[in-house]
């Protein structure tokens, strides 16, 4: 039987932290910058007009640039009309010959900063600044294009140096990216931007590795170069399109609510991304995201749960072999005590102390030549270390602090000698004289052993946990460009908290303020549908899936792990003649798979644009397949998703358009195939997905079974809570569904 060392309990804290928080705020505009921004405009304007006053063309420039109107707006301070200021900025960015002079550029830059500050004053100002964003466009000049091309070459060289570490990897990646095409187009006098755009699309895929810094640098450099080269070649076309996009963006922003759909959010994110690519609106973009893109996941693990996993009583026998002041000591002992966890408040990272306080009681025999000293000892022991978790580094620990104090009682001294009485008397006297020093030495050695053991076990725990964190979580997400833009973990006296925001450049996160996780549970989270939908768009957009892909996924190790926690009931089967028939679906590029959380229901929609294997034909009609589930709870603490309805509809109809007769054949065939698997709409027993109670493994098993005590989808958020079964006691009868006698053993069916 394996013995549990008291100091290994620290491993539990780190492991549970990762399991609970890693498997699954609104920034305000800086109003204090307002005066500084307007002062900068005033200062640069004074310098410009002083320079213009020395030229006969000065009055003409002042009139063209509307400098008098600008001074009127400066007098109004934060109440300036942002639309009027933007119109003045448009004069400075008009591209008129001569405006490239430094004094004009200084006013232009200052005006851009002031416009951004004014945009943050109110939503009305933000919308006005958004509508005027196209005025920030300036045609890229040859120097900019040359600098952009150098940036691409620098990124290429950096990626090439990384790839050269593995020749086989280099050949595969360069073939995938059309490496020669990049070089050829960079060398061309008139580059083919479509070919470079194709490379950018490859660099933007979900393939593992494309999230690494070397690939991202090349993608960003190419994106900037292609956009600027296109803008230089077609300035009027770009500016016209920017004006249209800016108006549409303002309208899309006005339609946003806390419950906006993924499609509505994408209308804002995509248009904002387009503006940011072609104009100097980085600050405006930040303001829009600060207002309309909030963290889309928040979670906590309670102090009680962590304590339940870590804290325990120590009852450990020990074998003693030591040398104290030249006396060989051996015997047996028993260490008893407690291991405790204490959360440490820290807003920047999660911190907790692991401490052990106990006592070792031992019976020993000390040997010096023919003298045997029989004694009892009591050694008080204390050890403590602070463990921290930060997103980039993982777990780390401070040096262990230890303390030990020994007290001994001599029971007897025996001597194997003809001079026993004399030697015994001398031995008692000497033992009494050396007792304080011996106790001090014993305490010092006990402290050393305790520190060494604690440090070693903490180091082992950190190495193992960080290995799992980086290999299983952080590194895979980084390599696929899926690691959140915000991943903030902190601790208070009551819990460890996690806040996450994930949205790509053309996406928003939660449009409204982040909902708080339900309080009072062992662990809880709230997740906004945008988190799932944003990741799904990146991973699945435009991808092809076949029956072979489905078979491979079903047989994967990941699916085996899923089957430990999930069961699917009441699954139908395809007809015999279609069971093994090959099929293929191409998912939509935008919103390929979306989830919606609404008033106790979870709706999942899959959108395809091309279908093969339904019959002998190939269908290229966009179709949306949706299923809707109701949430229920089982008496055993399980969580159930019960199918309430399903259908197939043309994507145009699903998104508010009109039905086209050409969609009817494919829609009918898809409905028939779906009916085979999900059953008829009127079926009494429908498909149900059961999430089993969680049975932690390893050291975390000490907390016992974890049950689902809350699952509430509403207003685009899903609130989920789990608690220890021993905490909630007997669960009441709930609304778990009836299931058929024959159930699906795994997800493959």
Q: What does this entry look like structurally?
A:
With 749 residues, the chain is of the alpha+beta class. It folds into four domains: 192 residues, no CATH class; 95 residues, no CATH class; 90 residues; 188 residues, no CATH class. Helix content is 44%, strand content 25%. The protein contains 23 helices and 21 strands. The strands form three sheets. Strands 11, 12, 13, 14, 15, 16, 17, 18 and 19 form a nine-stranded antiparallel sheet that branches. Strands 8-9-1-10-21-20 form a six-stranded antiparallel sheet. Strands 2, 3, 4, 5, 6 and 7 form a six-stranded antiparallel sheet that branches. Helix 6 packs across helix 7. The radius of gyration is 35 Å and the shape is globular. The two termini are 41 Å apart. 34% of the residues are buried. The N terminus and C terminus are likely disordered.
